[in-house]
Amino acid sequence: MLAQGGRGLILAVERDHPTTAGGTGVRCLIFDGLDAELGQRMIAQGKVPTAQVVLFPLAVKQTGNLTEWLRAARPQAGLWPFPDDLGWPDGIELLRSDAHGWVDLATDGMQMWIRVEK
Asked: Is residue 10 part of a domain?
């Protein structure tokens, strides 16, 4: 668990390549809610973790600083369960379940592959 607030937490799933000294790794952040206060505090303190992928549940939709938070996290892709993008930042691939169907993420710790149903 990376962070916990009054209305949610952030989990990190990491995979380091076994043959890489120190490992470059791949990190996926999984959100179970993100209250605006926690998100803003992490931004202000420079403690937004970077990740290759972020996964959002429905509870994040009400977070007012989501775009700013995503810019700080710098993911390559985000899995988003909503039929709109709510100002999704440019440069981050947006994978929506309504548009793409299922999404399969795979990694060997150094590279990441994304497959979608549609």
From this structure: yes
What is the domain range of residue 85? 3-17+24-108
Q: What is the pTM of this model?
A: 0.73
Two tokens at 43? 């931004």
Domain count within the chain: 1
Q: Is residue 115 part of a domain?
A: no
- Rounded Cα distance between 41 and 64, Å, is 13
Instruction: With beta carbons less than 8 A apart as the criterion, state whether 106 and 26 touch.
Output: no
The per-residue pLDDT for range 15-70, each reduced to its tens digit, is 775 555 555 678 888 877 667 777 788 889 988 888 888 887 655 555 557 788 88
DSSP 3-state of 67: helix
Written as six digits, the tokens of 51 are 């990740």
Whole-number CA gyration radius for the chain: 14
Name the nearest CA neighbour of 28 among 62, 78, 65, 68.
Answer: 78
